[in-house]
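Suppose a colleague, Dr. K., hands you the sequence of a protein chain of 295 amino acids and asks what its three-dimensional shape might be. Before reaching for any lab equipment, you can write down a predicted structure in token form. Begin with the sequence itself:
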Amino acid sequence: MKKIVLFDMDGTLTPARKAMTIDVADKLFMLYKAGYDIGIISGSGMNYIVEQCEVFFKKYGSRIEDLKIYPCNGTKYFTWDSNKAKLTQQYCKSIRSELGPKKLKKLINALLKYQIDLMNNYEFSERFNYTGTFVDYRESIINWCPIGRNANAIDRAVFEDMDSYFKIREKFAKVLGKDSSFSGLSIKIGGATSFDIYPYGWDKTFPLNDNKHKSDLEDYELFFVGDKCKIGGNDYEIYEHVKAINKDNSFETHGPEYTINIINTLLQRWVYNLHKVIKNIILEIRLVLLNGHAR
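The predicted structure, expressed as tokens, is then:
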């Protein structure tokens, strides 16, 4: 059976909203050459994935086949054409069609009210520099970023520090979960500064589920690597799904450097398995030769 490793992006292959390093790109290609197919499954939209993984596409795009990209938790699916060096969309779900315009408008209005509340009524909010694009419509996911998607690295670092101390997103996720505007929706902590909001079942197990959108994963032995694997994180469901099938195939990382170590572990498994195969072949050859001499 073919093997595929599905990687989260922010906090796994890249620092949050930053570019992939050449070291990670090289390791991914080594994993591919060892016989593992590669997939990227992220809460981000395709524009962020292409931007952050540019070094991988540029260096190895013409040398890798069957690369699978799953933006927005896999509610969108793209395949990579190495000959044309381009991505082709295979399917795309629409949250507008799923919820209806009225429900979607109510959801966005509620998020904007919470945004104003957070900016004006909390002491810690005075330490933030707010930018723009607080609510990002990604066609199949709504992303809410309290400091704004346009925040620079320093702004994000300040928020991450405050979020770690005050548990801002953890507390707001509970508040949103009790608001009727978000009924039927999952509210997940994603990346380093935001929330992902989407219909139940549209988590990262979406391309694995039995639905009409096929993503070619049914023929693979699955592996997963992500950083938000605890309850409430946007990697939790797929981490647990893969772990339930094979506990040794699901990995929680703590950043790109840690992910490199996980890839090294998978490469060591490959070497060990290859050694076993070679050993068995040698034993079979010896048995054939012994039987021949016996005659």
